Amino acid sequence: MVDEKEKIVSEDMGVQVDKKEDIEMRSFGTIKRWATKRSLWMVHYCTGCGGIELAPLMTSRYDMERFGMHPMVTPRQSDLLLITGYVNIKTLKRIIRTYEQMPDPKYVVAFGSCPINGGPYWDSHVTINHLDKYLPVDIYIAGCMPRPQSIVKAFDDLMDMIQEGKADGYLRYKKYYDKYKANQEKIFRKWW
Amino acid sequence: MSQTKTIDLFFGPQHPGITGNFSVRVTVDGDTVVKAQVIPGFLHRGFEKLMEMRHWIQGPALICRICVPDPDHSETGYATAVERLAGIEVPERGRYIRSLMLEMSRLSAYLFYFGGYAGSIGLYTVGQWGVGDRDYILDLFEELTGARVYHIFNFPGGPRWDTPPGFEDKVDKLMDFLEKRLKEFDKLYFNNRVFIKRARGTAPMTKAYAQKMEVTGPNARATGWAIDVRKDDPYAAYPDLDFDIITQKEGDNYARVIQRRMEFEQSIDLIRQITRKLRKMPRGNVRVTPNPLHWKIPPGEAYGAVESSKGELGYYVVSDGGIGPYRMQARGPSISHGVQVYEEMVVGQRVADVAALMFSLDVCPPDIDR
Amino acid sequence: MSEQDFVERMAKFPGSEVKLLRKGQIAMKVPADKGHEAAEYLKKMGFTHLVAIEYVDWIKDNEFELVYNLFSYSSKMRVFLKVRISRDNPEYITFMDLWPVAMTHEREAHEMMGIKFKGNPNLTPFILEDWKEIPPMRKDFDSRKFVKEKYDSIPFVEDEP
Amino acid sequence: MSITDIVAIIGMAVFVPLLGLLFMGIARKITARIQNRIGPPFYQQYIDVMKLFSKRSNISHSWVFDIGPIFAVVGMLTTMLFIPMGGFQLLSFDGDLIVIMYLMVISGLGIALGAGASGNPNSGIGVMRALVLMMSYELPFVLILLSVMLYYNTTSLAEIVSKQADMAWAVLALPLSAIVADICLQGQFGEKPFDQPIAPAEVATGPMVEYGGKYLGMLMLWHAIAIIVEGSLFVNLFLGGGIVFDPSTYVGMALNFLVWIGLVFLMFFIALLINAVMPRYRIDQAFAFYWKWPTILAIIALIYVMVVSSW
């Protein structure tokens, strides 16, 4: 069965997909996406204060592992990057580095008000106010702190998006790579 | 060949052996650390600058974000400093509610701490239980303040409002539950032979060293040095409460963990004392904050400190007579034990104890970065 | 010893200006060149705990104020030892010999306020990374303007069509 | 080698990883229950492997890095061929016990090789720890093997199993050896307190630190096979290989196979329960631990067997 949705995503985004991979993706797309959504491993990286609400989420009260999600130690092993709260420039550099180390497909969830527009730190000299200028974000969770329930809801939505093939942040990153890189270079004086 | 080969290991910022977003670069010779360099700053937000652009009353909304696991101490530290500067006396009930919140916050921070240290040596069950139990404390916070983590409740002048009816009973019930749980933690964790073997004798800190390096809080008390801001520079309702300073002797990882465990029990006791008093007190009068929209404080400076779960957390506030602070500076407890002390103590330890030492010292990176 | 005794003893230090702020908190102002001496004097009096080094930018007076926040565990007293240095050439001496942990506080003050501490070997970048503007905690650093110019001017990558 | 043998080998090579993954899934569920959680579904591990193999990009560092996991899986599968599994044994000859010991080390070396090629210092330290750990538990384990070989007077695993069916199970005849072997099994499984090689808070999963996507999927399969092989080795040595029914009938064979699965899971379950309530030792402490009491007990067990068998 040809999977129409996957085809639309890959063609719409203008990303080069070689023929073999394309066929493979069409034939097993649904199953692969199902497996991906049911086993989202997140990078163990608390980039901001939102990390505090991840702990209840991972432990007995809300138990994220029910959905097959659990923290993984290195970016190489993970699928999901959580930006938990405000992003300092110094951290952003590490976040981008972490993001680029993750294998495709990969997803980004931005947590709390701060990555959306700066939140309470909108006039701080070190926090970047809009995360999506530097990294593609798949889903935002508003609020400070977002409650565990809303985080679970966001993960649920992300899973639906993955199943429908709408979670295309990593494809957008490839498509607009030059623009993202240009923005990143504008705020970092030097890379390393 | 006399020169040995050393490897540089990066602990963090993306690493599970780090207490948050923080980084340590350790140089390892074989399995032993020969040099360590702490790299903070990933959580810098410039609170001190932001505060200069806010009103006095906007402070708590920002300040609570300084140390995430323990936000109430940040709020109260700022509130105490501003009250001292403005010469405000908080009503008795307000002081008691404040103390109640602080001790509950301490309990939740310690539950986090237990899980953190246990996680660093691989005993994840403690973390799962501890953080799960912590959630019941957060539920009570939610009932009292409306928020789980950042409460924005302890304003300069007193807590925002009085406790809801029946709150004291719920707190007491939770304390009974936590006391019961602590016995299970004893079995699983504090009396675990592998834990004792791992922690005892690891990275000992002497009393003289703690005094030399200005270490405060439970880390200092674990070396046998009886200091406590609650006694030395009393705030909230602590002058009226009955408690002693608990100390340990050895100052190693084991003593540091057990110190927290003892203080956990003490906090439960303090909370019971507070709820007993709160029941007897007339309700209503908790806050005396002036109208915040044109609240000006005469020029001057003041320092207010609290004993947070990590050590002395203080705020130095300067006013030039305006509607907001002219300058505010925070003294995070981790600035002493998280930077220089950690860098010196980790030398000579095994790679396996780099994370364990960091968790046992309870380094809170946003304290340092602010 | 009562607070008044402390105030009197501190006032004996040449050039000092002592004020009892409130219960348990004393402010002591000394000329910049006497700072280290005064700190030693206070340490001998029992103020052994250096809580923090606070730094205030008094831009109207064109001066930086360094506040050494000292605490005495024996008498439960706190003293703010204040020295003022010129804003044009912010330089002071290190207190590392009295309190080793001063190194970290001075490193922070150097980064955030641009004050150089003679004798401190470790004035390397601490919290900020690649910071080329004027130190951020100075009063003449306008953080809102900076944010507008640096972060808000960057375009969004994917604008809605 | 006949067609049926080849079919059996392929069948086992498919079945054993699936069984191991099931065990790992149940393990996660049980650990979750101990930790007051609901936990993932028992088939979570299959989803994880499926996801890992469907990853679209896989980062390679060098060809040695690539062949590492393959080496490990193939090594483990080869080991599996020599191990009786509830009455099924694919390859067997005199002295296969010694071959098994060698092969198990070889598959571990595959990972060491690949991880070493990744260039990450954490993998280097993890590999070093894994080798030290292996050295620690191999000494008492080899002593125990010696005692079992002496007691049954053979070096063939199949023969040990068949002799146990005639006599009593070795766990009854040699209880001390069984206890020491179980302590060593904890280290072989890599469960706490002996999970130093992959300690996340210390070396960030050690050898696996650079492996992602399909490589990690391979390593997961390797781990799944390893659980079965190591558990099965213990079951064969001490629990009679699970042979309780008459193996000449088909029903008996099927029941034996189920008993074998149950016994392997029992061994894994015991390791799991200890794993859930123990922190990990430091690597030097683990080394000291294994070379102290287990080794002393293993020597006592060996002397006991020597005395008993010389009578």
Short description:
The complex is a heterotetramer of chains A (192), B (370), C (161) and D (311). Chain A has helices spanning 4-12, 19-38, 51-58, 89-101, 114-117, 148-164, 169-175, 177-187; strands spanning 41-43, 70-72, 80-84, 87-88, 107-111, 127-128, 139-141.
Tell me about this structure:
The complex is a heterotetramer of chains A (192), B (370), C (161) and D (311). By secondary structure, chain A is an alpha/beta fold. Helices cover 46% and strands 12% of the residues of chain A. In chain A, helix 2 packs antiparallel against helix 6. The radius of gyration of chain A is 17 Å and the shape is globular. In chain B, helix 3 runs antiparallel to helix 4, helix 4 packs antiparallel against helix 5 and helix 4 runs antiparallel to helix 13. Chain B has 14 helices and 8 strands. Chain C has a single domain, classed as Beta Polymerase, domain 2 (2-Layer Sandwich). Helices cover 24% and strands 29% of the residues of chain C. In chain C, the strands form 2 sheets. Chain C has a 5-stranded mixed β-sheet with strand order 1-2-5-4-3. A two-stranded parallel ribbon of chain C has the order 6-7. In chain C, a hairpin with a 2-residue loop joins strand 1 and strand 2. The termini of chain C are far apart.
